[in-house]
Amino acid sequence: MRLALVAILSLAITPVLALEAVTYKGTLGKFDIIAELTDPASSTIVGRYSYMSKGGDIPLDAMESTGGSIALSEETPCAEETCIQNDDGVVVDPPIGATWTLQWSATDNTLTGAWQATGKAGKTLPIALKEIGRRTLPEGAELTPYDLYDSVFQLSYGGLSGFNAQSAPYDFAKMDVPLELGDTQAVEGSTIRFVTDPRTRFAFPRVVALADGSAPDAANRGLAARHAKISFRAFDCLAQIYAGFGANQYSIGMGPGTLGDYDSETIAVSYLSPTLMSWMESGSTWCGGAHPDNHSNSFSLDVRTGATLALAKVFKDWTATSRKTGNDDGAAIDQAAAADAPDDYYWSAGQKLIDYVIANRLPDPDADFEAECGIDELIATYLGARFVPGDRVLLTLEGLPNVVAACGGDLLTVRLADITELLAPTAGDYFPSLAR
Q1: Best label site of 4, 46, 233, 287, fewest CB within 10 Å?
Q2: Nearest to 232 by CA among 298, 279, 162
Q3: Which residues lie below 8 Å from residue 107, measured CB to CB, with a gap of 6+?
Q4: Distances, alpha carbon 51 to alpha carbons 25, 26, 164, 241, in Å
Q5: pLDDT tier, 308 (very low <50, low <70, confident <90, very high otherwise)
Q6: CA-to-CA distance for 357 and 393, rounded, in angstroms?
Q7: Rounded CA separation 301/275 (Å)
């Protein structure tokens, strides 16, 4: 869970409209870097950058520029004695490790200049950057490195289609590193392999071939987007060691500056056909906050489109209940529209499916555990599903609050053909065996 922002240095926090952030790729000395700066044609410039070999962001704060050059101060990681909050909860004088002095060429969209370490004998390294993308910041965004960073963090909560190379060019360019390739594995006539970003170190699947010979390109775009989301969260943990991204004297040693155990995340593919893919993501991640995120969550993908599969397309009455953005205006939710953007909504299973699971699941052999958890009551709110071989569905408890996380687990596995009365008319689009 991300730390609340309690410490931001900003020499300019004037709200702006339609401000653009520009992504650059290039070198700092001999090191490959990626950088995102507010438009160099604007009056105040801030940014963030990352070494491609590391992935965590470093804040670049505004400095007074002279002679037409762009001047930025690069923060260095917080220490307990260097990131003291004032009475307003702001670190007003974060530690600075280097300064950037840049010249912008509007002709070829490049930035060149020098990086100089602080101190009289600080070494100097050349900087050479070229624009590779840009995005428009949200209306009212402030001119701080944090706002650049946070606007993408908010995007990462949306659907796979909303967090992409167009909406987050800096973050997706940062993902463009050679992946370590695992061995191929057969899954019901299709083939997958797991790939690993060497910086975040967890393996995530890609489709090598589908059983019917169709192209897996769309599926792999969706899988790459999901992989990028998890890597983004790991890099987010690394970045929180800087005052500009939330660190202060109280957060030192409390989780930021590590991968937050995302490097121990486990992904297991449970089903793959030319139409649908299911997998489970499990782990215990912690990036500051009250407690770790202990989780085992199911995901399903429409293989033909690369989009998250709404379970409403398989089960009757699987209903979108509210928007994840919290911007509900009280109007009734268009369920058909929600099914085409399932990541933007909270969902719950229909009552008939809930009743079926309660009536057919095997009770936990520990009666005291069963009673303490109140499993039947949890099913009504936290029922999840993923698909398994034989065109079956595994129904499970997942996404539980931390205080009852131990009550989660698998409840029932059943053939879809045996519960046709609970299926949506579109279920056959994903499971052709149902039409036989």
Answers
A1: 4
A2: 162
A3: none
A4: 10, 10, 20, 15
A5: very high
A6: 12
A7: 9
**Pairing mode, strands 319-323 and 293-302:** unpaired
Q: Which residues contact 432 (CB under 8 A, 6 or more apart)?
A: 275
Read off the pLDDT of each residue in 409-420 and give the average, rounded to a whole number. 96
Whose tokens are 């449970």? That residue is: 270
* DSSP class per residue in 131-148: EEEEEEPPTT--SSHHHH
Identity of the residue numbered 126:
P
- Kindly report, residue by residue over 343-382, the tens digit of the pLDDT: 888 899 999 999 999 999 988 888 888 889 999 999 999 9
With a cut of 70, say whether residue 432 has pLDDT above it: yes
- Give the predicted TM-score (pTM) of the model: 0.89
Closest to 160 (Cα-Cα) out of 340, 291, 374: 340
d(CA 107, CA 113): 16
**382 touches 346 (CB < 8 A):** no
Beta strands, E only, 314-403: 319-323, 345-348, 383-388, 392-397
**What is the per-residue pLDDT across 202-242, written as a single tens digit (0 to 9) for each?**
999 999 999 999 999 999 999 999 999 999 999 999 999 99
Which residues make Cβ contacts (< 8 Å) with residue 231, sequence separation at least 6?
A: 55, 175, 197, 199, 200, 262
The packing angle between helices 145-155 and 217-239, to 10°, is 140
The one-letter amino acid at 331: A
- 3 state DSSP class of 274: coil
Write the Ramachandran bin of 9: left for phi over 0, alpha for psi from -120 to 50, otherwise beta: beta
